[in-house]
Amino acid sequence: MRLKRGALILILLLSTLSLVAQTVTFSISKPALRPGDKGEIRATLVIPADRKQSVDPADPAYFYLEAAHPDLEFGAGSLPKPSKVISEHEWLYYPKVTLTLPFTVKGKANAGKKSITALMSYNLCYESGMCDPPEDKEGTLSFEILEPLAAAQHQEGPISIAQLAESSATEPADEAPEAVAIEAESARNIPGEEAPMEQPSPWREVFKYLIFAFLGGLILNITPCVLPILPIRIMAIINQAQKDRSKVFRHVMVYTLGVLISFGILAGVFIGIQAAGQSAGWGTQNQNPYFQIGLMAIVFVFALSLLGIFEITAPGMNTANKASTKGGYSGSFFGGIFAFLMAISCTGPFLGAALPFAMKLPSSLIMVFFLLIGLGFAFPFILIGFFPKALKIIPKPGDWMVLFKELMGFVLLYLVYTMLKTTLLLTSGAYFMNVLFFMLVLGFATWLYGRFVRYENSKATQWIFTILPILLIAFAVYSYLPIREEHLATETVAPIGTEMVADTHAPAGWYVFTPELHAKLLAEGKSVFLDIGAAWCKNCMANEKTVLFTDDIMAEFKAKGVVLLRGDFTKNDPVLLEWITRHERMGVPFNALYIPGEEPTLFPELLGKKMIREALDKVPAAGAVR
Predict the structure, then answer these.
(1) Which of 149, 238, 279, 371 maximizes the CB count within 10 A of its CB?
(2) What pLDDT does 17 receive?
(3) Which secondary-structure segment (H or E) carries 352?
(4) Residue 141 parent element (H or E)
């Protein structure tokens, strides 16, 4: 019970952590004004302790406050006194800074309650010199334009208290900021007037991303990368439960520990990238042949284990093996690590949209972000741990379990086949043959281990056939896997130009994407749908097969006159990578609908026909593009 209670507390702590990040608060100096009155809009940026706002006073390109309203005439904003002057071209602001935008109510402004949206742009930087991407924050403010004073005095009936207060609070143009602040505060207390609307607290946005991190981890369990191996772990837990149900909870907690440690290591990688000031790209790891071969080797070895070629044991460790067989805790722990490794190829779709946000967090909160993904990933097993009676609905172990395990081995071999195809796309044919021979040596080495490292053999034999396979594998890695320049496939770059070239890997009606063609089509007033995918991206292929390439969706694209462009990110392509990261995404699949004069509609990584149709409803009716 103590272990359960401690695990529950840990889950609650991870789920409720929030953070202090930059905040922007908007206000207006006077909530009620008359034609000819002057006022100002203010935006106060609270800056985290580890960042500064750096500005070139001669060119504050990414640090400004702007607004527009037909009844107001705006003056030029100016930079406040800096917190620190580095040079004539670099001013620093911290821990907070307020920008002001002066305005005058036009003489012919119509009376009534109004609202205005103000936008503050800023670009925070770290001590290391690395800067966050520029950010824009909007806030909507309410104010009222009253009748001109002369007209108000001739109205029938008494003048309202608010009007009297307003008429006596005319603000001189050179009034000191302290007086403005006092006046604004008293104006907020006038009955019937609305206080300035404050930008929503950023912790809500942070909490939203933390929830998405947990849900993304949960959804990873049903992706094509992970789903095939989940029954294997469930089978192991069932087997352990039949022997000792009291240990079910411990096994799932050990599995969870393996998952959390794995995601913690991944978080450490990104913390290191952040500290080094590098930009992180996620999903591009699948373009690295070493990554593909390493993951493929792990899956291949596990497949051989499921097919009965070998079992993981240690020579001379009979006692430890009996303990492991009874409790299987090491199997549960490494099962969590293996599930994580299988999930890596499918994390891009769920992390792609959130990683730009996560990389702005302090290091400790990046760790929390990734641990929440791991927590969501392990959550189905945690439920089994808290409610072990749910296992009663699962059939008892028998020969069917052995058959099922072997079938899962062939499923993993199919995954090896898909990784081999990706390796062939990334490398030359000669290197692909090297990889095949390496896999043959790896299979032979595991057979040697499984055949001779058995407890009926002497300790000497067990040690020899533990060391010999390791040496064989190391020799094969050294001899066959180093990649030379001639082994790599030529780096591809998206073609340049505005010519519409048919994409031969897609149905008729899809054209090869280029930034120039995209810009030309929008300039001509045509809407564009862009699909960037890769051959190694299972979600990309699923989106195309079940949604984008289907006859009904293709017909709806055609009816709306939408031009279909497609980019291939199978191999390293700096043009496509720059396009993806410009939209604050970190990998594929990338899908977006561009309508001239409007902000692009970015789609989630897993598409549905309904969301495509809803987006197409915004496209103006047009003839089909030929």
Answers:
(1) 371
(2) 43
(3) none
(4) strand 135-145
Please report which confidence band the pLDDT of residue 550 belongs to, taking 50, 70 and 90 as the band edges.
very high
Q: How many CB atoms lie within 10 A of CB 133?
A: 14
Q: Are the CB atoms for 461 and 452 separated by under 8 Å?
A: yes
Give the Cα separation of 141 and 202 in Å (integer). 18
Q: Look up residue 309 and give its amino acid.
A: I
CA distances from residue 167 to 32, 148, 187, 247, 417 in whole angstroms, order as listed = 10, 10, 12, 77, 80
In 3-state terms, what secondary structure has residue 42?
strand
The DSSP H or E segment spanning 118 is strand 112-122
Asked, as a colleague might, if the bond just before 589 is cis with ω within 30 of 0, I would say yes
214: confidence class by pLDDT, cuts 50, 70, 90 = confident
Buried b (16+ CB within 10 A) or exposed e, 212-235: bbbebbbbbbebebbebbbebbeb
The DSSP H or E segment spanning 111 is none
Tokens of 501: 């070239």
Q: Quick one: pLDDT at residue 84?
A: 85
Angle made by CA atoms 135, 69, 192, in degrees to the nearest 5: 100
Give the up-direction half-sphere exposure of residue 382: CA atoms within 13 A in the CB hemisphere. Answer: 20
Q: What is the largest CA-CA distance in the chain?
A: 112
pLDDT bucket at 237, cuts 50 / 70 / 90? low
In the chain, what are the domains?
23-200 (2.60.40.1250), 207-426 (no CATH), 510-616 (3.40.30.10)
Alpha-carbon distance 366 to 269, whole Å? 10
Phi (first) and psi of residue 196, to 5 degrees: -60, 145
Q: What confidence score (pLDDT) does residue 302 get? A: 76
